[in-house]
Amino acid sequence: MTSLRAVTRPAERRPSPGDVPQPRGNMIWVGHGGGMVGWGLAASQTFSGPDRFRQAQEWFDSLAAASTIDDTVQSPGTGLAAFGTFSFSDESADASTLTIPARIRGWNEHGAWETLISPAEDTAQSDEIEEPEPIADFGRVVWGPGEVDEDRFIDAVAETVEILADGDIKKVVLARDIAIVSERPMDERLLTARLASAFPSCWTFCIDGLTGATPEMLASVRGGHLKTRVLAGSWPTTGGHEAAEYALRSSAKDIAEHRYASDSVLHAIDLQASGPVRADGPTILHLPNVVHLSTDFEADLAPGWTGLTAAGAMHPTAAVGGTPTDLALDVIARIEGLDRGRYAAPVGWMDAAGNSDWALALRCAQIDPTDPHRARALAGGGVMDRSVPQQELAETEAKFSAVLHAFSRPTA
Ligand SMILES: C=C(O[C@H]1C=CC=C(C(=O)O)[C@@H]1O)C(=O)O
């Protein structure tokens, strides 16, 4: 087992996107009053199959136990920290990964810090930073149908509605994808800066080229306390926020759709909690492009649970899978026509003190690892027996507009 040495010291200021030296290969997390940017490689591991979350936790725990951590800041994310993305499906061709960068710069409401991570035997850590490559716009960006075009998505929703009419399956979440092509290589620093400023109430991320701003949190853990935000039930804000909120509040289909998602999370948290689970919702979450029904849960985790294993046990919630889970996943595998890759699965970070944020990778695009001019974005929605295919399509369009905003806004 590799052993590492992580040294964290206070920093004078929070990093700006221009401090990150490279356009791609970064680990970026921004949201809710703090953030971290990481680059370089100290250690990395891939995981696969149904057991991938537990494997990842064990790998990180053993590495942390073998490593030396010298941390004078002692805040969430300081010391030894890893960033990760996980595949949606147990059978996905995409690997799930944890990566520990060589350098992390972070900030929160208490201040800023820097962590250098190197092999334990390197006693002289260098804090020299290479000259940053200038941030460059990607020029003209075009997008079009991916593997599942609009007609195919409409057919898939209609077919699913027929299946749901039998009553055994209550809800299935179906997604479609679009292909994005840029004139010049995509720059993660620019994409995440745009997303973080346009969606301040979301968690903006870029890990392994998976880049987005998600409003949904599976497991945010601080000092053993878990917070979860479940979203399901949506209305596009194309006709204004007030009209969207009214439509959502009075839609029996969306209220039922939300209930399935929040119940699925509550059942999982009940098994993970050491005491009572507090719920707050459903309330309405306003985003620029869409409004959602939203419920927050909080609980103290029982011994043995971590943010990652809790997120893994919740996954896939009925916000991205369906109800009942197994039957819904079966319909998705038969009808959707996509490998979802890391879309709609946990994305986030963890530290050796047990703090973590594992969000659901929604409103995101995966930059092609072999061609930085290309990315694939996915978006979906909950299909119920009352769903209208054209409305579900419009919902995915509104959801796509979040990530497309980051690709399309002209530079100032
Ligand atoms: C599956 C997605 O959204 C989920 C989260 C919020 C609302 C949803 C809905 O109303 O269908 C979905 O459950 C997506 O954004 O791709």
TrEMBL record:
Q: Where is this region: Disordered?
A: 1-25
Instruction: Outline the extent of the Chorismate-utilising enzyme C-terminal domain.
Output: 150-399
Q: What name does this protein carry? A: Isochorismate synthase
